[in-house]
Structures are given as structure tokens and as C-alpha cells.
Design brief:
Chain A has 163 residues and is α/β, with parallel strands linked by helices. Chain A is built from 7 helices and 7 strands, in the order βαααβαβαββββαα. In chain B, helix 2 crosses helix 5 (140-149), helix 6 packs parallel to helix 7 (207-215) and helix 10 packs parallel to helix 13. Classes of the chains: A alpha/beta (163), B alpha/beta (420).
């Protein structure tokens, strides 16, 4: 799958409270959550994000609460993939489990700017910054984490195991 | 090569002789936990699998976040969890009136034992490492799958050794230890890693101190925080846990990525400034910082010893006229003990509010939401932007002694500043 989109850029330690504040956690409906996605860090995001746009961030993206509502809200906004220098571990698990691809790019993530146009080839493991002309290689997922991602998430993977 | 405590628990639950950091493994689970926010989506995922629950005695469901329910939507979520618990005859469902804040409640009622492996759809599940268990937070899909299969996958983490020496001075507690540690290593300083506490200083820490410290391992990005099993652990566990369990200890030649040393006797009361738990500063170095609200409670500091500290400071004093003080015992048992010991009367006479157990204000749910521009001192665990209410409010994290002193003086204050 090739993803092409515009970059929404955020800094280090974006926590799950700002991705989806707890005042909206009285529902788990992805559409309702999407309306408030990123509200406490960027109130313009939910209204302006277009399907296919990408989020690029610094270190420790998704730290804090284990709320799966955070990657669910981002996915429901039509964001097909998140790129960050690094991810907090529960967020990482949750995103893989719900079938939202993540790319850990280390320090190179800082070279990507807001508004840049990116082309991501997940199968090939490559991120191309069309705006800057730079291309980055992505480490493939290890072992059965790759299998969970390939199944489109943990539930499909578990159902497949049972069969 | 020898193994750490976490590696030993993983090996045993994966049916392997040894495991090494980075290895991907599947482990059987001793307990799977969820709450009124995380369990409803987990139940939806569970239903998609189409299997019965793996063990009705090894699932714990605690409605503690938005309960007693704050609105219709949260009542619907609590109802979904209640109906699931009935349908599957879940043994450890705790109704409002019997529940407590999950991470105060589960160790208290004996659902956590040394050497066990526990996942919970709540990031502060790492609290149970205080008892020498491996426990970590996961999301709802992991919880839903685990309720069906009884196992889950892990990447074996590398470990950081936290060597504790000395004895805590008066008015310095577990919260000051863990905030100091997070200040040293940062909010991602232990990301994907295990924090293993060790050293003769551990023996000086009460179980309440250990629970507070392990609780905030996640605030350094850690997968878990774990304490050795000693006489203090056994004294806590023995009256509570009736099933057999196998405690583990680290091998002398276990490998640690690095060692961090903390001399407990050198610590002072600290606060974490907005908007990250790593922004740690001694209270003695704070400029005059007036406050609007104090919250004492939460899965971090809602235990009886926490309330005892607060009561000792509140006794004979009044909450400052500009401050709302909200005190939340972490469980019904804590509440009853606080009543029996006279703490509740001290709090109410001082002008504080005492609430039934709930996570409530910690996550900006209910029972103490902040308005724009307001500032709180809280014994909770996160001071992220907007966590307790308006995006332009501020949270200063502290232990119960600092929180109580601040409530009385109307500004961030050290316990010693309140006259006896």
C-alpha cells in the first residue's frame, strides 16, 4: 500500500490526554472521538485534517494513559500512518492491535516539517519526503508483530490462530 | 547468564528455561483487568472472537473512572460492563459501593501475588510490581483478546537497576522518591524498559511507598516497575492471598542496562511542575505559587498511610479560604479505616470535601474539574496539559504531606511550614 499525504507536525511527548481528552471518553464511538482528536494540542486539527494526511512527531508519541481511544480517534480522522522519532510502548501496541501502522524514524523524524508532502510505501519500508527530496528506510516489524499488522490487527490475528 | 526478576517471571509464564531482552514471547496470564472506560471497547473486541472467557476467576472488572456515573453516556458504559460481568459470571466484578480505585483495590483484596503476571487495560497497572509481580498496562484490544485466550505477547524488556540506600527523612515519601527518579531520567528515560528497585533502602520503604513508586513507573515510560519480595511484602500478602504463588528474585549476575543510585536520606519534598512529571523541583526552591484546589487520593496516593499523613498535617488547621480541598479514599476499606482513625472528621472539620472512591478528578472526569487559569496541587500521577480540566489549567504533582500543607497555606508549601 502506498500512502501519500500532507504532514501535521507535533513535538516531543505528545500524550494521549491531548490526543483525546478524558472528557470525551464517555464514548468509544470512533466517529465521535474523531471530532475531538488532538483538541488540547491543536484545536484546528480535527476540522482541517484530510483523509490521507499523516502525523509526524518527535520522541515518545502517545505517552501516558493506555486509552486505545487515542489511536482509534487518529485512525477515524483518516490518518493512515503515524511517523515519530519514537513511540510510547502502550500506544505502540494499541496502534498495531487496531491496524494503524506506525513508523519509528529516530532523529530523522525532525527533518520532516509541517505541510511537507510524504509518500510512504509500507511494503517496501520506505518514506519519501516529496517536498525535500529525501528518502528514509524503515526497519521492518519483527516476528509476530508483523503478522498482527499484516492481519489488520490483533483480533483478526487471534481469530486466524484459532482457525 | 542470570536473569532479572522480570525475565524470570516472563520465562516461567512462557514455559521457557530462560528469556533474553528483545525476545518476543507469548505468556499465560494470571489476571486480566479492565475499568468502565477501557472494558466496554474490550468487550466489543472480545465478542468478535466468539469464544467464552478463558477463566471467570482471572478477570477483574472495576467501575472506578466515571463512577458513581457522572452522565448518561458513562452510565451506559458501566451498564455494558455490568451486563458482561453477569453474562460470563465474572467472579471479581466490583459494584459501586464495593469498588475502589482499581490499583488500590486489587492488591488490598488479594488479587495480586508475588511472581504473578498481570495485564490491565489501564496504564497504572504497573502498580502491582510493588508486590514482586510483573504487571503492565495494555489497551482495550489486548484486554479483549486476553479475556478469550488467557495469554498475550510481550517483547522482553531490558532492565534498569534502581539502587536505593538510606532511610527517608520525615515528611518525605514514596511520591518524592518516584518524582525524583523521573526528574533524573525523564518521561521516556525507561521507555520499553523494566525498572527494578533494589538495595538496602527497599527495606525502609512501606508497602504504601512501594505501591506509589511502582505506580508511576509508566511516567518514566517504563513497561513495569518491580520490587524484591521481602518480609514487608510477605506481611502484606499473607493475610490477603490464599492461593499458592511462587515469588522470584533476581540472580546475582543478572544483566542491567544501567544502574541509578538514590540515597533516600538525601531526598526532600518535591513537586512536578506543569506540564510533565519530569519537571521536578524541591518545594524549598519554589517561588510563592498560589493555588485554587488540592486533590489528595488516586491510585498513586489514595491509601490509608497517605490519608494518615494528610490528617496529621490538617489536624487543628483549616483549609485556606481560597482553596477547595478534595480528599478521596482509594477504597471502601481505606474509607472505613480513615473513619475509625478519625481522619475523616479531621478533614471535614478543616473544611475539606471527602468523596467516595473514584478516579474522578485525576483524569479530568468529574469531582473537581479545573477552570481556565486555575492551579491545583494533586497527589495524582499526571500533570499533562488539560489533564484535570481546562486546557489552560495547571497541575503540580506532589505527595500527600505537601498537598495537605499547600491546602492550609493556600500556596505550594512544605509540610514543615505548617505549625504543629
Amino acid at each position: 500500500m502506498i500512502i501519500q499525504g500532507k504532514v501535521w507536525h507535533y513535538g516531543d511527548n505528545v500524550d494521549t490526554d491531548v490526543i483525546i481528552p478524558a472528557r470525551y471518553l464517555n464514548t468509544a464511538d470512533p466517529k465521535e472521538l474523531a471530532v475531538h482528536c488532538m483538541e488540547d494540542i491543536d484545536p484546528t486539527f480535527a476540522g482541517k485534517v484530510k483523509p490521507g494526511d499523516l502525523i509526524v512527531a518527535g520522541r515518545n508519541f502517545g505517552c501516558g494513559s493506555s486509552r486505545e481511544h487515542a489511536p482509534v480517534a487518529i485512525k477515524a480522522c483518516g490518518v493512515p500512518c503515524i511517523i515519530a522519532a519514537s513511540f510510547a510502548r502502550i500506544f505502540y501496541r494499541n496502534a498495531i492491535n487496531i491496524g494503524l501502522p506506525l513508523i519509528e524514524l529516530g532523529e530523522a523524524a525532525a527533518e520532516i516539517k509541517a505541510g511537507d508532502s510524504l509518500k510512504v510505501d509500507l511494503a517496501l519500508g520506505q518514506v519519501e519526503n516529496v517536498t525535500s527530496g529525501k528518502t528514509y528506510r524503515v526497519q521492518p516489524l519483527p516476528g509476530f508483530i508483523r503478522d498482527i499488522a499484516a492481519a489488520g490487527g490483533l483480533i483478526n490475528y487471534v481469530k486466524g490462530e484459532k482457525a | 547468564m542470570g536473569m532479572t526478576m522480570t525475565e524470570k517471571i516472563f520465562a516461567r509464564h512462557a514455559g521457557l528455561e530462560t528469556v533474553t531482552p528483545g525476545q518476543l514471547i507469548k505468556c499465560r496470564l494470571d489476571l486480566v483487568l479492565g475499568n468502565d472506560i477501557t472494558a466496554p471497547p474490550a468487550i466489543k473486541e472480545f465478542d468478535r472472537i466468539g469464544k467464552p472467557v478463558f477463566d471467570k476467576d482471572k478477570i477483574a472488572l472495576v467501575p472506578d473512572h466515571f463512577t458513581p456515573n457522572k452522565d448518561i453516556k458513562s452510565a451506559e458504559m458501566a451498564k455494558a460492563m455490568r451486563e458482561f460481568a453477569k453474562k460470563h459470571a465474572i467472579t471479581h466484578y466490583f459494584e459501586v459501593g464495593r469498588m475502589g480505585i482499581e490499583h488500590v483495590l486489587l492488591p488490598e483484596v488479594g488479587l495480586v501475588a508475588p511472581g504473578e503476571l498481570i495485564i490491565g487495560a489501564d496504564s497504572h497497572t504497573c502498580t502491582y510490581g510493588a508486590l514482586g509481580a510483573f504487571a503492565t498496562g495494555v489497551g482495550s484490544t489486548d484486554m479483549g483478546a486476553a479475556m478469550a485466550t488467557g495469554d498475550t505477547w510481550f517483547k522482553v524488556p531490558s532492565s534498569i537497576k534502581v539502587e536505593l540506600t538510606g532511610k527517608l527523612p520525615r515528611w518525605v515519601g514514596g511520591k518524592d522518591v518516584v518524582l525524583t527518579l523521573i526528574g533524573m531520567i525523564g518521561v521516556d528515560g525507561a521507555r520499553y524498559q523494566s525498572l527494578e528497585f533494589t538495595g538496602e533502602g527497599v527495606g525502609q520503604l512501606t508497602m504504601t511507598d512501594r505501591l506509589t513508586i511502582a505506580n508511576m513507573a509508566i511516567e518514566a515510560g517504563a513497561k513495569n516497575g518491580i520490587f524484591p519480595v521481602d518480609a514487608i511484602t510477605k506481611a502484606y500478602v499473607e493475610p490477603r492471598v490464599k492461593r499458592p504463588y511462587t515469588a522470584v528474585s533476581a540472580d546475582p549476575d543478572a544483566h542491567y542496562e544501567r544502574t541509578i543510585s538514590i540515597d533516600l536520606s538525601k531526598l526532600t519534598p518535591v513537586v512536578a511542575l506543569p506540564h510533565l512529571p519530569e519537571n521536578v523541583k524541591p518545594v524549598s526552591e519554589m517561588a510563592v505559587t498560589t493555588i485554587d484546589q488540592v486533590v489528595i487520593g488516586s491510585c498513586t496516593n489514595g491509601r490509608i498511610e497517605d490519608l494518615a499523613q494528610a490528617a496529621e498535617i490538617f489536624a487543628g488547621h483549616e483549609v485556606h479560604p481560597n482553596v477547595r480541598a478534595i480528599i478521596i479514599p482509594g477504597s471502601q476499606a481505606v474509607y472505613l479505616e480513615a473513619m475509625a482513625k478519625g481522619y475523616i472528621e479531621i478533614f471535614i472539620k478543616a473544611g475539606a470535601v471527602v468523596s467516595t472512591p473514584t478516579c474522578g478528578p485525576c483524569l479530568g472526569g468529574h469531582m473537581g474539574i479545573l477552570a481556565a487559569g486555575e492551579r491545583a496541587v494533586a497527589t495524582t500521577n499526571r500533570n499533562f496539559r488539560g489533564r484535570m480540566g481546562h486546557v489552560d489549567s495547571e497541575i503540580y504533582l506532589a505527595g500527600p504531606a505537601v498537598a495537605a500543607a499547600s491546602a492550609i497555606l493556600g500556596r505550594i508549601a512544605a509540610p514543615g511550614e505548617v505549625s504543629a
